[in-house]
Design a protein that fits this description.
It is built from two helices and two strands. By secondary structure, it is of the alpha+beta class. It is globular, with a radius of gyration of 12 Å.
Amino acid sequence: MLFVPVDGNMTLDMEGMVEVLQAIKAPLMVPMHYFSSYTLHRFLERVRALNWQVEMAAVPTMVVSKTTLPATRR
């Protein structure tokens, strides 16, 4: 599991971050540091274009364990 800073301001720009994510191949990525819904949705649209599965939860919590990690990138 990887927490991904996607603001593009104090971190890598979006294309640089996507390049790193493609290299790491984490099975689960959680975007963070997006500061606005525009920035978050821009990032999500970019990774959807790569055919990565995107899920949005109705609640701001999740439970993850080694046995429940997805086999494919999400």
